[in-house]
Design goal:
Elements lengths: L5 H7 L24 E9 L8 E6 L2 E6 L9 E4 L9 E3 L8 E3 L19 E7 L2 E5 L5 E5 L3 E4 L15 H10 L31 E2 L11 E2 L9
């Protein structure tokens, strides 16, 4: 007798496929109404849900969390909404000179920072046209931002984290469990026919099938509502 396929089992919401709630307690966000003053790095935190170390910044109205920059130390002071361009300072993009490295960039002014929060990544200020600032993103594509959007100067810490090998399977298991990622993943074409729509050894075709739009969760695998199919001519 077959069992419910992975898609169905994960959708049920059992504890087997449940994220570690305590891992997501830190919200990486720059406060909306940040005064012009100095902030102090009170603590560096290792979070299982984030690839980079997290810095707790204290200021007159409270505290907030951002990804730590490279070579950050506890007790260091940074400028908030100032004009001085230095690692860790939070400035408007219009005040940051060309060729500077930035991260935790706001999509719209005062939204707290949406872009570039992973370990070892940064964007480079490319050019300025009026109130618009163009950044060269890690994908090597240029993206336009408003000059009033804020960002943190520097490169996020934790570069090279993927270079260190994960020696034991147990370590990988707990890493994936903290983020609610499915691991290890079994290839569908390696399964039995009863366990997955792609299963069985007959006519193994790695090409994904197209599921119907209103297919139930057990059938909704492969290409889901593709814009087009076939070879592009």
């Amino acid at each position: 007798m077959g069992k419910r396929i992975i898609v169905q089992r994960r959708g049920k919401g059992s504890k087997t496929y449940q994220a570690k709630v305590s891992a997501y307690k830190y919200q990486l966000k720059i406060p909306k109404n940040l005064p012009i003053e100095e902030g102090r790095i009170t603590k560096l935190i290792s979070s299982p849900a984030h690839s980079a170390p997290i810095a707790k910044i204290s200021y007159s109205k409270g505290s907030f969390f951002i990804p730590a920059f490279k070579e950050m130390i506890e007790g260091e002071r940074i400028e908030l909404n100032g004009k001085n361009v230095k690692k860790g300072n939070i400035l408007k993009l219009s005040d940051i000179p060309v060729k500077s490295e930035v991260y935790c960039i706001e999509s719209r002014p005062s939204d707290g920072g949406k872009f570039i929060k992973t370990a070892g990544s940064c964007a480079i200020v490319g050019r300025k046209v009026g109130n618009k600032v163009f950044l060269l993103m890690p994908s090597k594509k240029e993206k336009e931002f408003k000059g009033d959007c804020r960002a943190v100067v520097g490169i996020i810490a934790g570069h090279g984290r993927k270079e260190k090998p994960i020696v034991k399977a147990g370590k990988k298991h707990y890493m994936m469990k903290a983020k609610n990622k499915l691991w290890p993943r079994t290839s569908p074409i390696k399964m039995n026919k009863i366990d997955h729509p792609f299963g069985s050894g007959r006519g193994k075709n790695p090409k994904s099938k197209i599921a119907k739009r209103n297919a139930p969760p057990g059938k909704k695998v492969g290409l889901l509502r593709p814009k087009r199919t076939g070879k592009k001519r």
